[in-house]
Amino acid sequence: MNNLDKFDLAILQELQADARLTNAELAQRVGLSAAPCWRRVRALEEAGYIRGYRAEIDRHKIGLGVLAFVRLDADRSTGNLTRAMEEAIRQIPEVVACHYISGTGTFELQVVARDLDSFSQFARDVLLNLPNVKDMHTSFSLGEVKASGALPLAHLAHLARSRG
User: Fold this and answer.
1) Cβ atoms of residues 96 and 110 within 8 Å
2) What is the band of 2 on the pLDDT scale with cuts at 50, 70, 90?
3) pLDDT at residue 67 in the model
4) What stretches of 75-132 adopt beta strand conformation (E)?
5) What is the rounded average pLDDT of the residues 33-55?
6) Which residues pair with 69 in a beta bridge?
7) In sequence order, what are the beta bridge partners of 66?
8) Which pLDDT score is estimated for 156?
9) Who contacts 141 (Cβ-Cβ below 8 Å, separation ≥6)?
10) In contact, 96 and 111? CB cutoff 8 Å
11) Using an 8 Å Cβ cutoff, are 54 and 15 in contact?
12) Which of 88, 109, 152, 153 could hold 70 in an S-S bridge, CB 3.0 to 4.6 Å?
Protein backbone atom coordinates (compact mmCIF):
# COMPACT_ATOMS: atom_id res chain seq x y z
CA MET A 1 0.00 0.00 0.00
CA ASN A 2 2.90 2.37 0.67
CA ASN A 3 3.99 2.27 -2.97
CA LEU A 4 0.83 3.78 -4.46
CA ASP A 5 1.00 7.28 -5.93
CA LYS A 6 -1.68 9.54 -7.39
CA PHE A 7 -1.50 7.83 -10.79
CA ASP A 8 -1.92 4.35 -9.27
CA LEU A 9 -4.87 5.56 -7.22
CA ALA A 10 -6.44 7.16 -10.31
CA ILE A 11 -5.95 3.94 -12.28
CA LEU A 12 -7.66 1.91 -9.54
CA GLN A 13 -10.56 4.37 -9.38
CA GLU A 14 -11.07 4.40 -13.15
CA LEU A 15 -10.85 0.62 -13.52
CA GLN A 16 -13.35 0.10 -10.70
CA ALA A 17 -15.75 2.40 -12.53
CA ASP A 18 -15.17 0.78 -15.93
CA ALA A 19 -12.81 -2.17 -16.34
CA ARG A 20 -13.48 -2.23 -20.09
CA LEU A 21 -11.52 0.97 -20.74
CA THR A 22 -8.85 0.59 -23.35
CA ASN A 23 -5.34 1.38 -22.22
CA ALA A 24 -5.43 4.56 -24.34
CA GLU A 25 -8.68 5.71 -22.70
CA LEU A 26 -7.36 4.88 -19.24
CA ALA A 27 -4.09 6.69 -19.89
CA GLN A 28 -5.93 9.80 -21.04
CA ARG A 29 -8.22 9.79 -17.98
CA VAL A 30 -5.34 9.48 -15.50
CA GLY A 31 -2.96 11.85 -17.27
CA LEU A 32 -0.30 9.43 -18.46
CA SER A 33 0.90 8.29 -21.85
CA ALA A 34 -0.09 4.78 -22.93
CA ALA A 35 3.13 2.87 -22.21
CA PRO A 36 3.64 4.04 -18.60
CA CYS A 37 -0.07 3.51 -17.92
CA TRP A 38 0.10 -0.06 -19.23
CA ARG A 39 3.21 -0.75 -17.08
CA ARG A 40 1.46 0.60 -13.99
CA VAL A 41 -1.65 -1.53 -14.59
CA ARG A 42 0.55 -4.62 -14.97
CA ALA A 43 2.46 -3.73 -11.79
CA LEU A 44 -0.83 -3.27 -9.88
CA GLU A 45 -1.97 -6.68 -11.14
CA GLU A 46 1.32 -8.37 -10.22
CA ALA A 47 1.32 -6.79 -6.76
CA GLY A 48 -2.20 -8.12 -6.17
CA TYR A 49 -4.04 -4.78 -6.02
CA ILE A 50 -6.03 -5.79 -9.09
CA ARG A 51 -7.16 -9.39 -8.66
CA GLY A 52 -9.14 -9.77 -11.87
CA TYR A 53 -11.78 -8.42 -14.23
CA ARG A 54 -15.33 -9.64 -14.64
CA ALA A 55 -18.71 -8.70 -16.01
CA GLU A 56 -21.36 -7.56 -13.55
CA ILE A 57 -24.48 -9.53 -14.48
CA ASP A 58 -27.99 -8.50 -13.47
CA ARG A 59 -29.22 -11.51 -11.49
CA HIS A 60 -32.87 -10.65 -12.18
CA LYS A 61 -32.28 -10.75 -15.96
CA ILE A 62 -30.93 -14.30 -15.69
CA GLY A 63 -33.81 -15.49 -13.53
CA LEU A 64 -32.28 -15.33 -10.05
CA GLY A 65 -34.93 -13.25 -8.30
CA VAL A 66 -34.17 -14.31 -4.72
CA LEU A 67 -31.20 -13.12 -2.70
CA ALA A 68 -30.98 -14.72 0.73
CA PHE A 69 -28.66 -14.00 3.63
CA VAL A 70 -28.06 -17.27 5.43
CA ARG A 71 -26.30 -17.59 8.77
CA LEU A 72 -25.01 -21.09 9.39
CA ASP A 73 -24.13 -22.17 12.90
CA ALA A 74 -21.52 -24.88 13.20
CA ASP A 75 -22.09 -27.79 15.52
CA ARG A 76 -18.46 -27.67 16.66
CA SER A 77 -15.81 -25.07 15.87
CA THR A 78 -12.71 -27.20 15.54
CA GLY A 79 -10.15 -26.42 12.87
CA ASN A 80 -10.69 -29.50 10.71
CA LEU A 81 -14.49 -29.33 10.84
CA THR A 82 -14.50 -25.62 10.03
CA ARG A 83 -12.11 -26.13 7.10
CA ALA A 84 -14.29 -28.95 5.75
CA MET A 85 -17.33 -26.69 5.99
CA GLU A 86 -15.46 -23.85 4.24
CA GLU A 87 -14.39 -26.12 1.40
CA ALA A 88 -17.88 -27.49 0.93
CA ILE A 89 -19.31 -23.94 0.82
CA ARG A 90 -16.73 -22.87 -1.79
CA GLN A 91 -18.02 -25.58 -4.13
CA ILE A 92 -21.63 -24.34 -4.19
CA PRO A 93 -22.33 -22.00 -7.16
CA GLU A 94 -25.50 -20.58 -5.58
CA VAL A 95 -23.41 -19.19 -2.72
CA VAL A 96 -22.09 -15.95 -4.20
CA ALA A 97 -20.38 -14.74 -1.02
CA CYS A 98 -19.45 -16.25 2.32
CA HIS A 99 -17.88 -14.72 5.40
CA TYR A 100 -16.59 -16.30 8.57
CA ILE A 101 -18.25 -14.07 11.18
CA SER A 102 -17.99 -13.06 14.81
CA GLY A 103 -20.91 -13.10 17.21
CA THR A 104 -23.82 -15.47 16.73
CA GLY A 105 -23.22 -17.96 13.96
CA THR A 106 -20.16 -19.21 12.16
CA PHE A 107 -20.70 -18.27 8.51
CA GLU A 108 -22.82 -15.64 6.75
CA LEU A 109 -23.69 -16.61 3.17
CA GLN A 110 -25.27 -14.72 0.31
CA VAL A 111 -27.28 -17.18 -1.75
CA VAL A 112 -29.15 -16.63 -5.02
CA ALA A 113 -32.09 -18.67 -6.25
CA ARG A 114 -34.80 -18.51 -8.91
CA ASP A 115 -37.67 -18.18 -6.44
CA LEU A 116 -38.66 -19.04 -2.87
CA ASP A 117 -39.59 -22.61 -3.75
CA SER A 118 -36.22 -23.30 -5.34
CA PHE A 119 -34.45 -21.64 -2.40
CA SER A 120 -36.41 -23.79 0.03
CA GLN A 121 -35.47 -26.96 -1.86
CA PHE A 122 -31.83 -25.83 -2.05
CA ALA A 123 -31.72 -25.07 1.68
CA ARG A 124 -33.11 -28.51 2.58
CA ASP A 125 -31.05 -30.48 0.08
CA VAL A 126 -27.74 -28.61 0.18
CA LEU A 127 -27.26 -26.14 3.02
CA LEU A 128 -28.67 -28.26 5.84
CA ASN A 129 -26.57 -31.19 4.63
CA LEU A 130 -23.24 -29.36 4.73
CA PRO A 131 -20.73 -30.92 7.11
CA ASN A 132 -21.01 -29.73 10.72
CA VAL A 133 -24.17 -27.58 10.32
CA LYS A 134 -26.08 -27.21 13.56
CA ASP A 135 -28.59 -24.51 12.63
CA MET A 136 -29.56 -22.15 9.83
CA HIS A 137 -31.18 -18.69 9.93
CA THR A 138 -32.30 -16.98 6.72
CA SER A 139 -33.28 -13.42 5.82
CA PHE A 140 -34.38 -12.38 2.35
CA SER A 141 -33.55 -9.20 0.48
CA LEU A 142 -36.71 -7.21 -0.16
CA GLY A 143 -34.90 -4.77 -2.44
CA GLU A 144 -31.38 -3.65 -3.22
CA VAL A 145 -30.43 -0.22 -1.94
CA LYS A 146 -26.79 -0.44 -3.00
CA ALA A 147 -24.83 -3.29 -4.53
CA SER A 148 -21.48 -1.95 -5.61
CA GLY A 149 -18.34 -3.97 -5.84
CA ALA A 150 -16.24 -0.78 -5.90
CA LEU A 151 -14.09 -0.24 -2.84
CA PRO A 152 -13.63 3.22 -1.31
CA LEU A 153 -10.15 4.59 -2.02
CA ALA A 154 -10.29 8.00 -0.30
CA HIS A 155 -8.24 6.74 2.66
CA LEU A 156 -5.32 6.24 0.22
CA ALA A 157 -5.38 9.84 -1.01
CA HIS A 158 -2.90 11.06 1.61
CA LEU A 159 -0.37 8.46 0.42
CA ALA A 160 -0.90 9.47 -3.20
CA ARG A 161 -0.45 13.18 -2.40
CA SER A 162 2.81 12.53 -0.57
CA ARG A 163 4.18 10.57 -3.54
CA GLY A 164 2.73 12.60 -6.37
Assistant:
1) yes
2) low
3) 98
4) 95-100, 107-113
5) 96
6) 110, 139
7) 113
8) 86
9) 66, 67, 68, 69
10) yes
11) no
12) 109
Nearest-angstrom CA–CA distance, 122 and 141: 17
- Pairing status of strand 66-74 against strand 133-140: antiparallel
| Average pLDDT, rounded, for the chain | 91
Cα-Cα-Cα-Cα dihedral of 25, 28, 33, 37, to 10°? -60
For 108-160, the pLDDT digits (tens) are 999 999 999 999 999 999 999 998 899 999 999 999 999 888 889 988 877 66
For the stretch 99-134, what's the b/e string if a residue is b when 16 or more beta carbons lie within 10 angstroms of its beta carbon?
Answer: eeeeeebbbbbebbbeeeebbeebbeeebeebbbbe
Beta partners for 98? 109
CA atoms within 13 A on the CB side of 105: 14
> Residues 6 or more apart from 75 whose CB is under 8 A from it?
81, 132, 133, 134
In the predicted model, is pLDDT for residue 161 greater than 70? no
